[in-house]
Amino acid sequence: MRAFAPQALCATACVGVLAFWGGMSMAGRSYPSEYDWRYMTISSLVYGDRNPHGYLWARGGIVLCGLAGLYWTTVVVRKGKHAGAAKRPIGLWALGLGYLCMMCCALLPERLLPIPKGHDFLALAAFVGICIGMVHSTFKAVERSARLGNLAGSPRLHAGILAGIALSPIVLSALAQAYVSHALPALPWVSLVWRARGVPVYLSFAFWEWVTCAVFSVYMVVLPPTTLAARR
Prior knowledge:
By secondary structure, the chain is mainly alpha-helical.
């Protein structure tokens, strides 16, 4: 069973990632007009007023992905407790909270949330939790692997590079938005208008949002077995 656990967790994470991208793909196909992911954000697919025939696909994919992520983080935390891990798994707790907020954002109707723009708050909390969790968990797992001799060179260097890759789309997105706010303040929020005006895709928040999802998807598949090994 111990030998099976990493494969099972990786399979669960893969199913969650496939559910997310499958749901988003179906939601994009059902969008009432043209959907160009480079200039249109994920929220365009998720809300019923914007995508009445496809928003349930998008929300279903988000829920299944969040459920898969919450499952494997819970399993890894419990494995660590059974193994007597002394340190608190800050990254795993942040990941679990992020995945929980991800599920709630897709499941809870707007009218049931007691705060204004509750869905936006949950989406931001999910993003921050998953980002912090992945960066912290990646750093710790790779650092430990390097110290055990599985990687040559400085453990912190390897860990820092991989954690930096996870953060890079977010940093680039922030830089792009700062440039747009300063140099192109008259532009409306990112949409197909940007494409019509010939605005480069690398300045689009939507582009970097989707790239971030792709990077997080890769890390979600890779992290379960590596974090489980690090918690033994």
